[in-house]
Amino acid sequence: MKHFVLVLGTRPEAIKLLPLNIELRKKENVRTTVILTGQHRELVEDVFHTFGCDADIKLDTMKHNQSLAGITARVLEGLDGLLPEDADLVIVQGDTASAFVGSLLAYYRGIPCAHVEAGLRSGDVHSPFPEEFNRRAVSITARWHFAPTLTAAGNLAAEGIHDHVHVVGNTSIDAALTIAAKNLPPSDMLRAALPELTDSNARVVLVSAHRRESFGEGITSIIAAIRKIAKERPDFVFVWPVHPNPNIHGVVMESLANIGNIRLLKPLSYNDLLIVMQRSYLALSDSGGIQEEAPCFACPVLVLRKTTERPEAIEAGCNILVGTDTGAIVDAFNRLADDRALHRRMTEIDNPYGDGTASRKIADTLLSAV
Ligand SMILES: CC(=O)N[C@@H]1[C@@H](OP(=O)(O)OP(=O)(O)OC[C@H]2O[C@@H](n3ccc(=O)[nH]c3=O)[C@H](O)[C@@H]2O)O[C@H](CO)[C@@H](O)[C@@H]1O
């Protein structure tokens, strides 16, 4: 019996690793232990609930206004005491401190590591900060690299990483399709905050922004764009689940409260988020996961970043890279709002991040290799 340990700390890691854990647990000759590092505790609990499972080990690392050094040090020390001695494999995902530290500890202990969502690169180690460093660092020690796309595999090849690279799609698509197929009802909170959910004439727009690179000037400029569009376009309803990060939360709540067609909400459960996405005409977002999931649900994304390590959806024509300039956001929004033919073309393209089978492929590969 093999023992695989999944280490995760944030909401997107839970969304992208729990489908893999479910696939692994279907196998007879493997058992898994899920360790939650506690990096973003509150946002993660909901995801476990949605997938109907719980973490096996929970670390308590969350501190108010935690520094990067503080998180990294606490997760490394906490994990060191808890990583099971008999682990045959450590699995990490993406680009967080938890992923970096999980792979580092596996390296220290001589345990092989598998990296899910390997090969995403911006090319600038300072942006996104610190994610670009984290994912590059994981690639140095990982033995298996599960790249979501050929582009990501090409990024690894450019760094000399050729062995055990498997292009499987992104597990975010497995998660989104699995949960959407359950057709779970929206929460009472969402129903009350967004009565337009059942009004087929209302045009809904999903908004989200939380990247560190947008703190300060970027978020101010995004807020100015949303305020201007909302005032000029009362035919649209804007739904913004505001990230709890203090650099975002305060300024968004202060600047956009009391505008009738802007609904500022607490972070949505994953199921509610998918319901809003399915109901949205378009999304304005800097989120990586939303850029990947939205093409499944006919929801073009205007990407609120200067660059993205997800060029596939831009190249395919599902999403548009807009940046954070107020005028550019307003122009791109109006164009897509008014040009229904463009909107239809953008929503008819196959999702370049996969078809919902990434977790099964990863589980099969690992079972035959470890
Ligand atoms: C630099 C970069 O791009 N890094 C990414 C970053 O993740 P991100 O940018 O995707 O992070 P978020 O936007 O926080 O999460 C998104 C998920 O959360 C769901 N959601 C959202 C709002 C809400 O109210 N309720 C929800 O349920 C949503 O549907 C989606 O699935 O780290 C990951 C981990 O390593 C990486 O994979 C990934 O590269």
Automatic annotation (TrEMBL):
What CDD domains does the database record attribute to this sequence? GTB_UDP-GlcNAc_2-Epimerase
What are the EC numbers?
A: 5.1.3.14
- Which reactions fall under this protein's catalytic activity? UDP-N-acetyl-alpha-D-glucosamine = UDP-N-acetyl-alpha-D-mannosamine
> What enzyme category does the UniProt record give?
isomerase
Key words, A-Z: Isomerase
Domain of life from the UniProt record: Bacteria
UDP-N-acetylglucosamine 2-epimerase domain: which residues?
Answer: 23-366
InterPro entries given in the database record: UDP_GlcNAc_Epimerase_2_dom, WecB-like
* Any matching Pfam family: Epimerase_2
Q: Which GO terms describe its molecular function?
A: UDP-N-acetylglucosamine 2-epimerase activity
As for family, the record states:
Belongs to the UDP-N-acetylglucosamine 2-epimerase family.
The name this protein carries in UniProt is UDP-N-acetylglucosamine 2-epimerase (non-hydrolyzing)
What organism is recorded for this protein? Oryzicola mucosus
What would be the name of the gene that encodes this protein? wecB
